[in-house]
Here is the input.
Amino acid sequence: MLVEQRYATAPQQVPSMSTDDLRRHYLVEDLFADDEVRAVHSHHDRVVLVGALPRTGPLGLPGFAEIRAERFFDRREAGIVNVGGPGTVTVDGTEHRLEPTACLYVGRGAEEVVFASDDESAPAAFYLFSAPAHTAYPTTLVEPGGGTVRELGDPLTSNRRTLTQYIHENGVRSCQVVMGVTALHPGSMWNTMPAHTHERRMEVYLYFGLPEDARVVHLLGEPTETRHLVVADRQAVISPPWSVHSGVGTAAYSFVWAMAGENQAFDDMDPHPAAALR
Here is the structure.
């Protein structure tokens, strides 16, 4: 399995970064490849991102040397969202069917995880977000449209969106992973307004559902020293706790948001109104 290391950064580093520097530190461009399992190990809260795209046959999730564990879930938990066609995730012999945008929580102690697609012409694309875990919670599937659904924003400000919380303090239990999916309504392009920070946890955005020629301009950095990344379909942005995170697209899109840290309260955030950004 291809594993990439991403080391933690401080806000003072951002002003001097070039575009290539920003992309190298915060943008994950190639997490999905046919018949491969790929991973990025971030030193922000020891998060691991995994992309699995089983086109012609099943793919197992291996352990890897960077986490010093025989099996991936020996000391970890994860949320898995399917951003491709229908497929299955089999955990220790129990098969879980994941339709597009379904979410599966896998608790600490799972020994064998296998990804599979129903149809190689439209393969599943499994996105896994993992953090260290101190105890075990049961593996739990949430179907598309399940979980806690929140309608946010306004068409007049182009940010009407449906936010679905899957793994959170009042939903599927976890040690520290918080995870869900946001879908922009037709005609809306802005996500996560007002932009905010939450010093108590890091976050990763995985954008999906974008046309091939469309892009999202994702804001990052301190509120008074913002930068941006231009992001394509199925690319992820690592957002440190000190960084704002918001974006606008050239077409409608969805994204998986996932967090890890010391506080699971979803609304624990420090807003930064647009007029205050620089």
